[in-house]
Write a structure and sequence with these properties.
Elements (H helix, E strand, L loop, with lengths): L6 H7 L1 H14 L6 H13 L4 E5 L2 H11 L6 E6 L4 H9 L3 E5 L10 H14 L4 E8 L8 H10 L4 E4 L7 E2 L2 E2 L6 E5 L13 E5 L2 H10 L4 E3 L2 E2 L10 H11 L2 H18 L14 E2 L5 E4 L3 H10 L16 H8 L4 E2 L3 H6 L3 E4 L7 H13 L1
Helix pairs in contact: 2-9, 3-9, 4-5, 4-8, 10-14
The structure holds pyridoxal-5'-phosphate (PLP).
């Protein structure tokens, strides 16, 4: 079976470098933060064209800390999409804010600026008790959201814009790398992401030194000096063992993204004229292909067809946030809000993800293309 993702293959490809890096940390005697984490933070900030990167424990914490670093929390609405990993919404709840789910653009599947403006008006009327807090745009599947259009709406309401870049390391918006396009950006380094470690890790990027300093304190109990908290913080440090693995893979990240793009180009060609549609790429977007997601009205048959041809497929995600039981319940209790999510409701029933990872062999890519051609 040709699998959808394979972080073990990334490890095997760089095994010697990774093991050397891990031994370096073990031998250093420094097991919390330190040079390994700092050097990753510097290198990754530079990759994103950002002034600062703060290494944290996972991507969900990165979003929570981005909000808290901006002073967004209790009594404030945070707008994001329902078509995302549930982690985006969980992080808003953890920050104490009220999630508001916004509809997507029917073509590129990321937050619609028109729907954002509508959701803001809706909240102002329906929930005058709640202040406007922030907007989190998700660069879903590695396709950047329409940052300029979203920033216009944010600016009109004086709202900070946070990028959820967990799926988009290496993506670009009008030639600019994601991670420095809004006020703060959150990344995950979960094993299958475009840049992943062998466990959990995350990062927060920003050009705002004041916010960076606050997030740096918040990730370690709110300390501004040792043992003395300036804020009520949490423990969300990045482990140096993960930083060491990430330092290895980061050296190949541009190459890895190019490999993903090359695989996507093969799939695009194999899908010419097919009833299964290749992913739409907006004119402003340079897609990083964390996932290659086709759309087809006959999804069940398509998945069975691919399986019969030895190709695994997956759903990202089988159910948008607003359809999941925890959030149906939260809506009834006023702990989450949404108005209409029509485009989201149409999209999620048609999406299906094909195998996609940088180390895929040419043979496996051809196997997927043959199965697509036979559909
Ligand atoms: C993976 C992911 C996250 C959460 O990252 P974790 O490291 O698993 O906490 C958040 N948002 C999106 C869009 C993701 O894909």
């Amino acid at each position: 079976m040709i699998v959808c993702a394979n972080p073990h293959a990334a490890y095997l490809e760089r095994r010697k470098d990774i093991l050397d890096a891990l031994v370096r940390v073990c031998d250093s005697g420094r097991y919390i933060l330190g040079d390994e984490v700092t050097s990753f933070e510097r290198a990754f900030a530079s990759f994103c064209n950002a002034e600062h990167c703060i290494g944290v424990a996972n991507g969900t914490d990165a979003i929570e800390l981005a909000l808290r670093g901006l002073g967004v929390g209790q009594g404030q609405a945070v707008f994001t999409v329902s078509h995302t990993a549930v982690a985006t919404v969980a992080a808003i709840e953890r920050a104490g804010a009220l999630p508001v789910l916004v509809d997507i653009d029917p073509d590129h599947g990321t937050m619609s600026a028109d729907s954002l403006a509508k959701s803001i008006r809706y909240m102002q009327q329906a929930r005058p008790d709640v202040q406007l807090g922030a907007v989190i745009g998700v660069h879903m599947y590695g396709h950047p959201c329409d940052v300029k259009a979203l920033l216009e709406v944010c600016d009109a309401h004086n709202l900070p814009f946070i990028e959820d870049c967990a799926q988009a390391h290496g993506a670009k918006y009008n030639g600019q790398p994601v991670g420095s396009l809004g006020h703060v950006a959150a990344f995950s380094f979960y094993p299958t992401k475009n840049l992943g470690t062998m466990g959990d890790a995350g990062g927060v990027c920003t050009n705002d030194s004041t916010v960076a300093q606050k997030i740096q304190a918040l990730r370690q109990y709110g300390w501004e000096e040792r043992y003395i908290s300036a804020y009520s913080g949490i423990n969300s440090r990045m482990d140096p063992l993960h930083a060491a693995v990430l330092n290895v893979h980061l050296g190949y990240l541009n190459e890895d993204i190019e490999r993903r793009r090359a695989i996507a180009a093969h799939y695009d060609a194999a899908l010419q004229g097919s009833s299964a549609k290749a992913p739409y790429v907006a004119s402003f977007a340079s897609h990083a292909y964390h996932l290659y997601v086709v759309r087809t009205p006959n999804r069940q048959e398509f998945m069975e067809h691919m399986k019969a041809h030895g190709v695994d497929t997956a759903l990202h995600y089988p159910a948008p946030v607003h359809t999941q039981s925890a959030y149906v319940q939260a809506l009834a209790e006023g702990r989450i809000c949404w108005e209409s999510l029509d485009a989201t409701d149409l999209l999620y029933k048609e999406i299906v993800s094909l195998p996609m990872y940088a180390q895929m062999s040419a043979e496996d890519v051809n196997g997927v293309c043959r199965a697509l051609a036979a559909w």
